[in-house]
């Protein structure tokens, strides 16, 4: 997927046509709207199936509710995205991969919920994959809003274990790869930095952009947990491998050093920030020991890194496997607003 000189390949030309014909980039988002993207369709709920995985599949709606309750974001100021359709998904994914999702057993393996294999695929598409496709649309649109406003937050997305040909770890669509390819074509940019601070390695986007010099990846993750993807590790431009049990102070010190290295090595036109809250102390899958205050400081550091260099930033909420994650995400966004790193209340310029 590396960019080359001369005429584009037939594959690249087809990708470009699909991107240019897509409806995911809404033409006019009024300035009265905040660059915060969410849809009630993000939340997954169907006969208790959502309780069979530790991921809190109502997290996204509860973040929105907390922000509304705090009085900093009214529902009529949130941008609702469109669903990513098959032609949109084919920008990154192959037809064979998308067709494989018509098999409920395949989806069950990806989302790690065995009971999904027993459901008719029509239900799987409607109740599980449709919410994911809406979140993909949100990630794609959020990149556009970030370039226009200086920052954007998709209260969802961040499916960083999914690559063009393979899903896994509750990630069925490669929204990070998709939003970057859309940005290359529609936003006329050629340098993107991924800052992946989910507790897990972002092996999906690493595989997709492994040979693409337009994308620089900073990935800081717990090396003792899923996915153990040693092939994808080779593609990380700057990796920071943490031990299980890493505490807040050490975590933030590692982040400071990593951001300094990234700043010295790459000058992006857009930052895609994968802001998983599975780094929280007590998270059953992340196995790190970062406090809620530490998460807010982490996010503040990344947003300040972007603001100091005047780089547009898109934040995705990604992983987080405790009920407390929604509150922590909302509190962090409120903190960003208080620190004037984002401006939700007015015209939303960074």
UniProtKB/TrEMBL annotation:
Question: Mind listing the UniProt keywords for this protein, alphabetically?
Answer: Chromatin regulator, Hydrolase, Nucleus, Repressor, Transcription, Transcription regulation
Q: Which Pfam families match?
A: Hist_deacetyl
- Could you say which cofactors this protein requires? Zn(2+)
Catalyses:
N(6)-acetyl-L-lysyl-[histone] + H2O = L-lysyl-[histone] + acetate
**Top-level lineage group:** Eukaryota
- Entry's Gene Ontology BP terms: epigenetic regulation of gene expression
Coiled-coil features, chain-numbered ranges:
none
Enumerate the spans annotated as Histone deacetylase domain.
Answer: 53-334
Any one Gene Ontology MF annotation carried by this entry is:
histone deacetylase activity, hydrolytic mechanism
Main localization, broad class: nucleus
The subcellular localization recorded is: Nucleus
What is the role of the protein in this entry?
Responsible for the deacetylation of lysine residues on the N-terminal part of the core histones (H2A, H2B, H3 and H4). Histone deacetylation gives a tag for epigenetic repression and plays an important role in transcriptional regulation, cell cycle progression and developmental events. Histone deacetylases act via the formation of large multiprotein complexes.
Indicate what this protein is called per its UniProt record.
histone deacetylase
């Amino acid at each position: 997927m590396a960019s080359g000189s001369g005429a584009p390949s037939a594959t690249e030309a087809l990708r470009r046509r699909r991107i240019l014909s897509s409806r995911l980039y809404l033409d006019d988002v009024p300035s009265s709207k905040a660059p915060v993207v969410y849809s009630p369709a993000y939340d997954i709920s169907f006969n208790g199936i959502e309780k069979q995985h530790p991921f809190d599949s109502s997290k996204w709606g509860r973040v929105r509710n907390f922000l509304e309750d705090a009085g900093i974001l009214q529902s009529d100021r949130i941008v609702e995205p469109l669903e990513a359709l098959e032609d949109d998904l084919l920008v990154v994914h192959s037809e064979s991969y998308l067709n494989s999702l018509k098999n409920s057993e395949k989806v069950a393996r990806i989302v790690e919920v065995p009971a999904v294999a027993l459901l008719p695929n029509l239900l799987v598409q409607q109740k599980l994959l449709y919410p994911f496709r809406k979140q993909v649309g949100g990630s794609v649109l959020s990149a556009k809003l970030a370039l226009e406003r200086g920052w954007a937050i998709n209260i969802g997305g961040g499916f960083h274990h999914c690559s063009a040909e393979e899903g896994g770890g509750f990630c069925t669509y490669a929204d990070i790869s998709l939003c970057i390819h859309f940005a290359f074509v529609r936003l006329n940019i050629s340098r993107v930095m991924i800052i992946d601070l989910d507790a897990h390695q972002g092996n999906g986007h690493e595989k997709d952009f492994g040979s693409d010099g337009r994308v620089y990846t900073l990935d800081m993750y717990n090396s003792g947990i899923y996915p153990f993807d040693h092939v994808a590790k080779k593609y990380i431009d700057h990796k920071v491998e943490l031990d299980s049990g890493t505490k807040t102070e050490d975590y933030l010190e590692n982040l400071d050093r990593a951001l300094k290295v990234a700043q010295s090595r790459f000058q992006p036109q857009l930052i895609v920030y994968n802001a998983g809250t599975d780094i929280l102390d007590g998270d059953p899958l992340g196995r790190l020991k970062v406090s809620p205050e530490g998460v807010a400081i982490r996010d503040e550091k990344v947003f300040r890194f972007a603001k100091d260099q005047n780089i547009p930033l898109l934040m995705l909420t990604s992983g987080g496997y405790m009920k407390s994650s929604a509150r922590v995400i909302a509190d962090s966004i409120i903190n960003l607003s208080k620190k004037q790193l984002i401006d939700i209340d007015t015209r939303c310029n960074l």
